[in-house]
Design brief:
This protein has eleven helices and no strands. With 259 residues, it is an all-alpha fold.
Length: 259
């Protein structure tokens, strides 16, 4: 069985990415508002508000740094998810943008990967803005923080691939209500707001299987400089999850748009 990635045409993929960039540049001012306002309010509310009630350190670091990594990760991964759910569905169904693109020599795999690449670009853009906010508030305490975008980009690749694959199988836009419910539910057991160790064991096990959890913990390690051996295995698991998700997304797009 041939992998979908072997059918990629990187020139076509780049063309899809450039199209999305061109569209984004027309509305970049409006898109700049959310990644600036949201992290500021979240850091003030959770880091300073809830943090004022936390007398001791959490996992060896201040609660501001602990929750800052969680807020950064969730916001960035959520951006990738929205790009590949509602935004992609509108281009697929209502605007027929994908049909128009596939009427050219562009293959479904190149279209899918171009969309994923754009989601990663948008996620990186948000990462830089939010990271600056965290540095200003003192949540990023290590020089390694400059590499914090790495696990977020890999995590965004997983989230974008998974979301695009799901979108390719959805026939009714209301089905996204379930997708959003699942994401926001798992968000609370991913270690973003409190350590996984405080949860019951039967919750910790599935929580550890969530790539969201690995992305958050690796981001936190870079922001604070607190690295552990387990982070090596989390990195490997996160990369494999991203590759599998992107492969599934490309196959799903071909099945939905071509087959």
């Amino acid at each position: 069985m041939n992998l979908a990635v072997t059918r990629l045409n990187f020139r076509d993929t780049l063309a899809i990415w450039r199209r999305n960039v061109t569209v984004h540049l027309r509305v970049w001012k409006m898109n700049l508002v959310a990644p600036i306002i949201e992290p500021v309010i979240s850091v003030v509310g959770f880091g300073l508000g809830v943090g004022a009630l936390v007398a001791s350190k959490v996992s060896g670091i201040s609660y501001l740094s602990f929750v800052g990594a969680g807020l950064l990760s969730i916001t960035v991964l959520m951006r990738a998810m929205f790009e590949m759910t509602y935004a992609s569905y509108f281009k697929m169904v209502y605007q027929a943008t994908y049909d128009a693109i596939l009427a050219t020599p562009v293959d479904a795999e190149s279209l899918a990967f171009g969309e994923i690449l754009w989601a990663l670009t948008h996620a990186l853009f948000d990462t830089i803005i939010i990271l600056i906010v965290l540095v200003i508030f003192g949540a990023a305490t290590s020089p390694w923080a400059i590499l914090a975008p790495l696990p977020l980009i890999v995590g965004s690749a997983f989230m974008a691939g998974l979301s695009l694959g799901i979108t390719a199988h959805i026939r009714d836009i209301d089905a996204f209500n379930l997708v959003m419910a699942l994401f926001f539910s798992t968000m609370y057991i991913s270690g973003a707001f409190f350590p996984l160790e405080v949860l019951p064991v039967w919750v910790q096990i599935p929580a550890r299987l969530l790539p969201l959890t690995e992305s958050i913990e690796l981001t936190r390690a870079f922001l604070t400089g607190h690295f552990r051996t387990i982070h090596i295995y989390e990195s490997i698991y996160l990369v494999i999850s991203a590759l599998v998700a992107c492969e599934w997304a490309m196959r799903s797009m071909r099945k939905r748009m071509v087959a």
